[in-house]
Write a structure and sequence with these properties.
Layout: E1 5-9, H1 17-28, E2 32-34, H2 47-57, H3 59-70, E3 78-83, H4 85-96, E4 102-106, E5 122-129, H5 136-148, E6 152-159, H6 175-191
Parallel strand pairs: 1-2, 1-3, 3-4, 4-5, 5-6
Helix pairs in contact: 3-4
Length: about 190
Amino acid sequence: MGDMNIMLFHSTYGLRPAVHAAADRLRAAGHRVEVPDLFEGRTFATVEEGIAHQEEIGRDELLKRAVLAAAPHSDQGLVYAGFSFGGSVAQHLALADDKARGLLLLHGTADLAEDASADELPVQLHIADPDPFEPHDWLTAWYLRMRRAGADVEVHTYPGAGHLFTDPDLDDYDAESAEEAWKVSLGFLDTL
Protein backbone atom coordinates (compact mmCIF):
# COMPACT_ATOMS: atom_id res chain seq x y z
CA MET A 1 0.00 0.00 0.00
CA GLY A 2 1.54 3.28 -1.09
CA ASP A 3 1.80 6.55 0.76
CA MET A 4 3.21 8.82 -1.92
CA ASN A 5 2.43 12.52 -2.27
CA ILE A 6 1.30 12.89 -5.87
CA MET A 7 0.88 16.10 -7.85
CA LEU A 8 -1.45 15.18 -10.75
CA PHE A 9 -1.79 17.59 -13.68
CA HIS A 10 -4.77 17.64 -16.06
CA SER A 11 -4.67 17.44 -19.86
CA THR A 12 -5.37 20.18 -22.37
CA TYR A 13 -9.10 19.49 -21.81
CA GLY A 14 -8.79 21.00 -18.31
CA LEU A 15 -9.72 19.59 -14.92
CA ARG A 16 -12.48 17.22 -16.03
CA PRO A 17 -14.22 14.36 -14.18
CA ALA A 18 -11.70 11.77 -15.44
CA VAL A 19 -8.88 13.59 -13.62
CA HIS A 20 -10.81 13.54 -10.34
CA ALA A 21 -11.64 9.85 -10.93
CA ALA A 22 -7.93 9.14 -11.47
CA ALA A 23 -7.07 11.01 -8.26
CA ASP A 24 -9.70 8.96 -6.38
CA ARG A 25 -8.19 5.75 -7.77
CA LEU A 26 -4.75 6.82 -6.50
CA ARG A 27 -6.20 7.81 -3.11
CA ALA A 28 -7.92 4.42 -2.83
CA ALA A 29 -4.43 2.89 -3.17
CA GLY A 30 -3.30 4.94 -0.15
CA HIS A 31 -1.67 7.92 -1.83
CA ARG A 32 -2.18 11.62 -1.11
CA VAL A 33 -3.10 13.44 -4.31
CA GLU A 34 -3.23 17.11 -5.23
CA VAL A 35 -5.02 18.04 -8.47
CA PRO A 36 -4.17 21.64 -9.38
CA ASP A 37 -6.35 23.47 -11.89
CA LEU A 38 -3.97 25.28 -14.24
CA PHE A 39 -6.89 26.59 -16.32
CA GLU A 40 -8.72 28.18 -13.35
CA GLY A 41 -12.02 26.39 -13.86
CA ARG A 42 -12.13 26.28 -17.67
CA THR A 43 -12.64 22.94 -19.42
CA PHE A 44 -12.82 22.20 -23.12
CA ALA A 45 -14.67 19.82 -25.41
CA THR A 46 -11.91 19.60 -28.03
CA VAL A 47 -8.13 19.44 -28.10
CA GLU A 48 -8.09 22.47 -30.41
CA GLU A 49 -9.98 24.65 -27.91
CA GLY A 50 -7.71 23.49 -25.09
CA ILE A 51 -4.56 24.23 -27.07
CA ALA A 52 -5.88 27.68 -28.04
CA HIS A 53 -6.49 28.39 -24.34
CA GLN A 54 -3.00 27.15 -23.41
CA GLU A 55 -1.48 29.44 -26.02
CA GLU A 56 -3.54 32.35 -24.73
CA ILE A 57 -2.25 31.85 -21.18
CA GLY A 58 1.29 31.08 -22.36
CA ARG A 59 3.69 28.30 -21.43
CA ASP A 60 5.62 30.34 -18.85
CA GLU A 61 2.47 31.33 -16.98
CA LEU A 62 1.18 27.73 -16.99
CA LEU A 63 4.49 26.45 -15.61
CA LYS A 64 4.46 29.23 -12.99
CA ARG A 65 0.95 28.14 -11.89
CA ALA A 66 2.15 24.53 -11.68
CA VAL A 67 5.22 25.47 -9.63
CA LEU A 68 3.08 27.54 -7.24
CA ALA A 69 0.67 24.61 -6.83
CA ALA A 70 3.50 22.17 -6.11
CA ALA A 71 5.64 24.42 -3.90
CA PRO A 72 3.75 23.93 -0.61
CA HIS A 73 4.14 20.14 -0.98
CA SER A 74 7.56 19.76 -2.61
CA ASP A 75 9.53 19.42 0.65
CA GLN A 76 7.71 16.08 1.21
CA GLY A 77 9.22 14.57 -1.93
CA LEU A 78 6.57 14.54 -4.63
CA VAL A 79 5.71 12.12 -7.37
CA TYR A 80 4.79 14.27 -10.37
CA ALA A 81 2.15 12.85 -12.69
CA GLY A 82 0.05 14.12 -15.54
CA PHE A 83 -2.15 13.41 -18.53
CA SER A 84 -0.85 14.47 -21.96
CA PHE A 85 -0.16 18.25 -21.62
CA GLY A 86 -0.15 17.62 -17.84
CA GLY A 87 2.58 15.04 -18.37
CA SER A 88 4.81 17.65 -20.00
CA VAL A 89 4.14 19.97 -17.03
CA ALA A 90 4.90 17.15 -14.57
CA GLN A 91 8.16 16.35 -16.39
CA HIS A 92 9.34 19.98 -16.24
CA LEU A 93 8.65 20.16 -12.51
CA ALA A 94 10.14 16.75 -11.68
CA LEU A 95 13.41 17.56 -13.47
CA ALA A 96 13.65 20.88 -11.61
CA ASP A 97 12.97 19.31 -8.18
CA ASP A 98 15.90 17.44 -6.67
CA LYS A 99 13.56 15.96 -4.03
CA ALA A 100 11.21 14.43 -6.64
CA ARG A 101 10.43 10.77 -5.85
CA GLY A 102 9.15 9.81 -9.28
CA LEU A 103 7.51 10.84 -12.54
CA LEU A 104 4.40 9.12 -13.92
CA LEU A 105 3.55 10.20 -17.47
CA LEU A 106 0.21 9.27 -19.02
CA HIS A 107 -0.03 10.10 -22.73
CA GLY A 108 2.56 12.88 -22.79
CA THR A 109 6.20 13.90 -22.56
CA ALA A 110 8.15 17.14 -22.90
CA ASP A 111 11.42 18.18 -24.46
CA LEU A 112 14.33 18.50 -22.07
CA ALA A 113 17.35 20.74 -22.00
CA GLU A 114 20.73 19.36 -23.08
CA ASP A 115 22.03 19.82 -19.55
CA ALA A 116 18.96 18.33 -17.85
CA SER A 117 19.67 16.16 -14.85
CA ALA A 118 17.32 13.49 -13.53
CA ASP A 119 19.67 11.66 -11.21
CA GLU A 120 18.22 8.12 -11.02
CA LEU A 121 14.68 9.55 -11.09
CA PRO A 122 12.20 6.69 -11.61
CA VAL A 123 10.07 7.51 -14.68
CA GLN A 124 7.21 5.54 -16.16
CA LEU A 125 5.47 6.49 -19.42
CA HIS A 126 2.17 5.04 -20.70
CA ILE A 127 1.55 5.87 -24.34
CA ALA A 128 -0.71 4.81 -27.21
CA ASP A 129 1.04 3.13 -30.14
CA PRO A 130 0.98 4.90 -32.48
CA ASP A 131 0.18 8.23 -30.84
CA PRO A 132 -0.35 11.21 -33.19
CA PHE A 133 0.97 13.62 -30.53
CA GLU A 134 4.01 11.50 -29.62
CA PRO A 135 5.51 10.04 -32.83
CA HIS A 136 7.96 7.11 -32.60
CA ASP A 137 11.03 9.15 -33.56
CA TRP A 138 10.16 11.77 -30.93
CA LEU A 139 9.69 9.08 -28.26
CA THR A 140 12.99 7.41 -29.14
CA ALA A 141 14.83 10.73 -28.86
CA TRP A 142 12.97 11.57 -25.63
CA TYR A 143 13.86 8.19 -24.12
CA LEU A 144 17.55 8.58 -24.99
CA ARG A 145 17.68 12.14 -23.59
CA MET A 146 15.98 11.05 -20.36
CA ARG A 147 18.45 8.16 -19.98
CA ARG A 148 21.36 10.52 -20.67
CA ALA A 149 20.00 12.85 -17.98
CA GLY A 150 20.20 9.91 -15.56
CA ALA A 151 16.53 8.92 -15.30
CA ASP A 152 15.48 5.32 -14.81
CA VAL A 153 12.87 5.12 -17.60
CA GLU A 154 10.22 2.51 -18.40
CA VAL A 155 7.94 2.92 -21.43
CA HIS A 156 4.66 1.00 -21.75
CA THR A 157 2.92 1.11 -25.12
CA TYR A 158 -0.72 0.34 -25.90
CA PRO A 159 -1.19 -0.69 -29.55
CA GLY A 160 -4.41 0.54 -31.13
CA ALA A 161 -5.45 2.75 -28.20
CA GLY A 162 -6.41 6.41 -28.72
CA HIS A 163 -4.19 9.23 -27.43
CA LEU A 164 -5.97 9.85 -24.08
CA PHE A 165 -7.10 6.25 -23.66
CA THR A 166 -7.55 6.44 -19.87
CA ASP A 167 -10.34 9.06 -20.09
CA PRO A 168 -13.78 7.35 -20.12
CA ASP A 169 -15.49 10.53 -21.38
CA LEU A 170 -13.51 10.69 -24.63
CA ASP A 171 -13.66 8.78 -27.92
CA ASP A 172 -10.00 7.80 -27.27
CA TYR A 173 -11.06 5.66 -24.30
CA ASP A 174 -9.92 2.04 -24.34
CA ALA A 175 -11.13 0.22 -21.22
CA GLU A 176 -8.67 -2.67 -21.47
CA SER A 177 -5.63 -0.44 -22.06
CA ALA A 178 -6.77 1.94 -19.31
CA GLU A 179 -7.06 -0.87 -16.74
CA GLU A 180 -3.64 -2.21 -17.70
CA ALA A 181 -2.09 1.27 -17.47
CA TRP A 182 -3.57 1.82 -14.00
CA LYS A 183 -2.46 -1.60 -12.77
CA VAL A 184 1.12 -0.99 -13.94
CA SER A 185 1.11 2.61 -12.65
CA LEU A 186 -0.02 1.58 -9.19
CA GLY A 187 2.69 -1.11 -9.13
CA PHE A 188 5.25 1.54 -10.11
CA LEU A 189 4.12 3.85 -7.29
CA ASP A 190 4.47 0.98 -4.82
CA THR A 191 8.17 0.63 -5.76
CA LEU A 192 9.01 4.27 -4.99
